[in-house]
Amino acid sequence: MRCSTEIVVGRQGELRMIYDESFDLQQLGHVHIERGSHVEPTMNGQWTADLSPVGGPVLGTFALRSEAIEAEIEWLHCHWLFTGSDSPP
What's the superkingdom here (predicted)? Predict the structure, then answer.
């Protein structure tokens, strides 16, 4: 699990981050939050992380929801946060 918030500043001054509640974004000005994935249960009680909102894969299945969320965050960090686009590199 990540223990810090990374904020990437784009060329036009836009900010990009994997949202968590450790930092009050309202302090930075106008906030626009978009969903990066859907962590959902399967029919048999497992969990998946669907990263299609940012052009990514469906990860899983995982026994625990927390495992799916951890995989989701890791994928977003490695494939989305620093790319500056809504599709994988």
Answer: Bacteria
Joined together, the tokens standing for residue 31 give: 């906030």
- Give the side-chain half-sphere CA count within 13 A for 1: 6
How many angstroms separate the Cα of 85 from the Cα of each of 12, 23, 35, 78, 88? 13, 23, 14, 13, 8
Report domain extents, the chain: 7-80
Helix, strand, or coil here: 38? strand
- The pTM score is 0.79
Q: What is the pLDDT of residues 40-68, one digit of tens each?
A: 999 999 999 999 999 999 999 999 999 99
Angle ∠(82,87,89) on CA atoms, nearest 5: 60
Kindly give, in sequence order, each residue whose CB lies less than 8 Å from that of residue 12, ignoring residues fewer than 6 positions away. none
